[in-house]
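User: I'm curious whether this sequence folds into something compact or stays loose and floppy. Could you predict its structure so I can see for myself?
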Amino acid sequence: MIEAVDLSKQYGRHTAVDHVTFTVRPGLVTGFLGPNGAGKSTTLRMVVGLDHPSTGQVLVGGRRYADSPAPLHEVGVLLEAGAVHPGRSAREHLLALAQTHGISRRRVDQVLDLVGLGEVAGRRTGGYSLGMHQRLGIAGALLGDPAVVVLDEPVNGLDPDGIRWIRGLLRSLAAEGRTVFVSSHLMSEMALTADHLLVLGRGRVLADVSMAQMTASAAPVVNLRTPQAEELRRVLTGPGVTVTDRDGGLAVAGLDGAQIARRALDSRVLVSELTPQTTSLEDAYLALTRDDVEYSTTTTTTVPRRAAA
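Assistant: Here's the prediction. I'll summarize afterward.
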């Protein structure tokens, strides 16, 4: 279990993490989400003792990571997949880690096979792809057979087969009763993998909920078509309701299908199609973090042309 209480981190006048309290429980895959600059990496670094909190504390298994007599056996961590000497082979890298904790060569070979690097374990890591580095980092995190696993963007650089593999691995680790804490920007993958979600925005906790609660929190969206679009827009728009153009029709948030149909009928507006849209994790996440994005972009997909000389 990971327990953070009133956890803050300041760098000069900048507050990276702002009085955050949360618990990551065993037996679940907890997804750690948030826009760039939300404080996720800083929080993970404080979990494993690489950054010292300005206030509060974070405990892993009931004690600070720095106080653990054998951290590899208690917490498996992947924060930077490329943090490997390029002149070493994968096996040499893991053997060096293993020797600090009395871990056997047999265990090194086990995790290399587990992550799919057994056949290339003797090659220097300087020639590895990003995906191979990720697999090696995951092997290092699992080397000590830890009860807590903390992974920062583990699917980055993996091909579709690798993404499916890491998804199954995370689920199996949680099923064994381990604490699994995973950060990611891939909403589609988190939707398939995570049981619980912790969302940060500008260093604060925006949500600490189950996956079902997260997707249910977004306003319902209904797609519809009508030959009287402007009149229907006027009928539907109101407090808590937004109507936007989408694919030649309208998308309505804040009303369900029955409410839309009733308003259209009362106003004698023809609706030719009305389709409720299932709320995705991406929809719910974007709605939640809309005001906490540090680097926002425009919604246009057209690249502006260079001005003529």
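Summary: DSSP finds eleven helices and 13 strands in the chain. The radius of gyration is 24 Å.
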